[in-house]
């Protein structure tokens, strides 16, 4: 998603962000935070970022240059870890369903609670209680929207699987990639290259091969109880997923990860708790409760928490589109695990599909910038509105400037 020309424009709903987000998390002193944008150190940092970006973008690069960087392989590796996490959560959900414990909202509640326990204390430590309160009053509604999209995306996707076939639900999940590309283009002013669009289409083709093999082997879930209702639920879930992924990418490029995850968890607990109390009450009473079920819930929660904690890294180093593309391989890993757990057999088309998806990712980054998708067009010239966090183009520029003696300080950045 590397832009051909930088731009400071952004959609109105997003442009009402707080002042320079790079200052977030830099200090717990609210007075210092207010004044920091006008201090000489901020000006020196801006100059260092500009110098570092110039050095990075002036390099003599080839069409394959980004493929040789650590960032590219980190994107691939983190993407596959996320796919494995999703596969693990699906496996634990299958175990729970096998003993008639179908509580989609309630079982996800523990994940949001764990995010709060891990990341809220970090946020309080970095910002201080007063600063945190100011963020709640000013930007709490934005974080509420992010959490709402995420919670409802989870919920309606699960509902879709309950009413339609697995094959139909997976086909509809392609819509999330369409939403990501469309919303990024319209709201965030992202401009895709032809090779990037070709890479996305090849990845989708690989997923199509997976679905075709499922249909051939009869692993499409059988008859649908209510196909129309299930398809509509799946379509709504995919749309909400796409919107939440783009919104989260925007957030983590401007704010520290610990802040984003703490608010995502905090509002997620509230929204998901109310939803579980309303819709999972009857299922909760009829569910099976024993030590084994508790173990499955713990495994589900830990895997999902790891997924949420790593997702911001790929959203910073890559993009929401790269994030969704990587998750297409989850079906492949699901079959591999299923051969050991549920006795599945691997169809000969599966390895072909996996290779197609990985090749699509490689093509996506061909002839792109050495910074890949980490340079975000909505952060303005020299990424001035972005946070200097792990995986961001701003931190890479600062570290490059430091290595060349153009800026003081040691390499590194905030989370």
TrEMBL record:
GO cellular component terms attached to this protein's record: membrane
PANTHER family for this protein: DUF914-RELATED, SOLUTE CARRIER FAMILY 35 MEMBER F2
Family listed: Belongs to the SLC35F solute transporter family.
A GO molecular-function descriptor: transmembrane transporter activity
UniProt superkingdom: Eukaryota
UniProt topology in membrane: Multi-pass membrane protein
Protein name, entry field: EamA domain-containing protein
């Amino acid at each position: 998603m590397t832009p051909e020309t930088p731009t400071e424009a952004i959609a109105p709903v997003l442009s009402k962000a707080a002042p320079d987000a790079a200052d977030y998390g830099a200090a717990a002193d609210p007075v210092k935070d207010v004044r920091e944008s006008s201090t000489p150190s901020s000006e020196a940092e801006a100059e260092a970022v500009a110098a570092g970006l110039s050095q990075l973008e002036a390099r003599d690069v080839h069409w394959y240059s980004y493929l040789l960087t650590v960032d590219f392989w980190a994107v691939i590796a983190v993407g596959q870890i996320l796919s494995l996490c999703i596969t693990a959560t699906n496996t634990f959900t299958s175990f729970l369903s096998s003993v008639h414990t179908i509580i989609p909202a309630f079982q996800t509640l523990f994940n949001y609670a764990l995010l709060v326990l891990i990341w809220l204390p970090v946020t309080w430590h970095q910002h201080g209680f007063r600063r945190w309160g100011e963020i709640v009053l000013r930007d709490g509604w934005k974080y509420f929207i992010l959490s709402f999209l995420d919670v409802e995306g989870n919920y309606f996707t699960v509902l879709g699987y309950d009413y339609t076939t697995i094959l139909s639900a997976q086909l509809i999940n392609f819509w999330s990639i369409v939403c990501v590309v469309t919303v990024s283009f319209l709201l965030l002013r992202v401009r895709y290259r032809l090779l990037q669009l070709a890479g996305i289409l090849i990845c989708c083709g690989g997923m199509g091969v997976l679905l075709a093999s499922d249909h051939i082997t009869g692993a499409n879930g059988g008859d649908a109880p209510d196909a129309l209702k299930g398809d509509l639920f799946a379509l709504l879930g995919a749309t909400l997923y796409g919107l939440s992924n783009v919104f989260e990418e925007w957030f983590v490029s401007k704010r520290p990860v610990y802040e984003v995850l703490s608010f995502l968890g905090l509002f997620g607990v509230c929204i998901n708790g109310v939803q579980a109390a309303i819709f999972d009450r009857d299922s909760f009473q009829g569910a099976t409760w024993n030590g084994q079920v508790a173990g499955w819930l713990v495994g589900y929660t830990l895997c999902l928490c790891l997924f949420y904690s790593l997702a911001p890294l790929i959203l910073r180093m890559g993009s929401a589109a790269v994030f969704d593309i990587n998750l297409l391989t989850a079906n492949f890993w699901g079959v591999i695990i299923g051969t050991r757990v549920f006795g599945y057999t691997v169809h000969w088309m599966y390895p072909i599909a996996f290779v197609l998806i990985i090749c699509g990712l490689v093509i996506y980054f061909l002839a792109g910038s050495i910074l890949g998708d980490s340079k975000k067009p909505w952060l303005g010239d020299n990424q001035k509105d972005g946070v200097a966090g792990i995986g961001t183009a701003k931190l890479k520029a600062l570290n490059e400037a430091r290595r060349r003696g153009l800026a003081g300080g040691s390499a590194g950045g905030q989370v």
